[in-house]
Amino acid sequence: DAGVHSKAWYAATCDRRMAEDALYRSNKDGSFLIRKSSGQDSRQPYTLVVFYNRRVYNIPIRYIESTGRYALGREKSGEEHFDSVAEIVENHQRTSLVLIDSQNNTKDSTKLKHIVRVS
After folding, report:
1. Nearest Cα to Cα of residue 113 among 45, 63, 36, 52
2. What stretches of the chain adopt beta strand conformation (E)?
3. For residue 1, is it within any domain?
4. What sequence ranges are listed for the domain SH2 (predicted)?
5. Taking residues 96-109, what's their average pLDDT?
6. Are 52 and 110 in contact (CB under 8 A)?
7. How many Å separate Cα 12 from the centre of its chain?
């Protein structure tokens, strides 16, 4: 367990569409939640869903088996590794998270500011 189940930002029963709908309704930059990844892959157990600039970003959270740590997005050199999913959230409540729009090839950044609960 990555320490997510007791957290306000963890939407246990939420799929991608529900998460995106909830974030569009919140309509606040920096709104976020974490859901189980659609694929249920042990190497990518969760997805960080973030709202910024009228867009929703689904960022995979990877589990690195060799170290037992977590990282965001696709593997890249110099990436940050975290001991838990909660540590990722806490870190990005203080420091900006880079949001990459692969379709338009643009970069934005925001901090995780508003927890969105899925009803």
Report:
1. 52
2. 10-11, 31-41, 44-52, 55-64, 69-72, 97-101, 106-110, 114-115
3. no
4. 9-116
5. 90
6. yes
7. 13
